[in-house]
Amino acid sequence: MRIALINENSQAAKNAVIFQALKKVTEPMGFEVVNYGMYAADDEAQLTYVQNGILAAALLNSGAADYVITGCGTGEGAMLALNSFPGVICGHVEDPLDAYTFAQINDGNAIAIPFAKGFGWGGDLNLEYIFEKLFCEPAGQGYPRERAVPEQRNKKILDQVKAVTYRDFVTVLNDLVKMDAQLVKGAFAGKHFKEYFLRDAKDKAVIEAVKAIIG
């Protein structure tokens, strides 16, 4: 599994702490972590939580990432932004129990963490515990286990509903460019975005759409 980390501007100063906690937990599991930044509060490329959604959707829909870890001050804005896009199911996760139940019941591909809310002494440990419970078992097994069948059925229904209610990602991306090209270009302006995305992305249509935007 390839996991992408994305930070927006209000919580960019925590990027290194989050990245280290994520790597510490997931690399022994055999997962790869790719840090898309922001790397620091004064980065030239400043991401808003709305742009987090655009970037996360591009990574997931292209196959450049299998999972996205993101957030903002409360986690709410990032969650809403990510869930605005096809191909993304993002949960709001504050603690290890949230992480475990979201993975087992909802089987999504992204989480949004409130990096400002209650992030004091021991914040790095809470992140480690969140990542441990998020990835400790194969997702989608149900919780409690006797609820597995209806929960898995509901997840399939949700996927089908999203397929009807959401347009394909390339169409959405092109329409966003028409609406506000700078918003979209800013989402892809990170220091290492082009390097990592073009190295890892698989979907040719998404790749070409993104290349047309970034030049």
Describe this structure in words.
- By secondary structure, the chain is of the alpha/beta class.
- 52% of the residues lie in helices and 10% in strands.
- The chain is built from 10 helices and 5 strands.
- A 5-stranded parallel beta sheet has the order 2-1-3-5-4, sandwiched between helices.
- Helix 2 (49-62) crosses helix 3 (76-82), helix 2 packs across helix 8 (181-187) and helix 7 (169-179) packs across helix 8 (181-187).
- The two termini are 29 Å apart.
User: How many H/I helices?
Assistant: 10
**Number of extended strands:** 5
Radius of gyration of CA atoms, rounded to a whole number = 17 Å
The strand order across the widest sheet is 2-1-3-5-4
The stretches of 5 or more residues where confidence is low (pLDDT under 50) are: none
Order of helices and strands, N to C?
Answer: EHEHEHEHEHHHHHH
Oligomeric form of this entry? Answer: single chain
From the spread of the alpha carbons, the general shape counts as: globular
Kindly name the structural category: alpha/beta
Write down the overall mean pLDDT.
Answer: 97
What is the end-to-end distance? Answer: 29 Å
Our estimate of the beta-strand percent is 5-15%
Helix content: 40-55%
Largest sheet: 5 strands, parallel
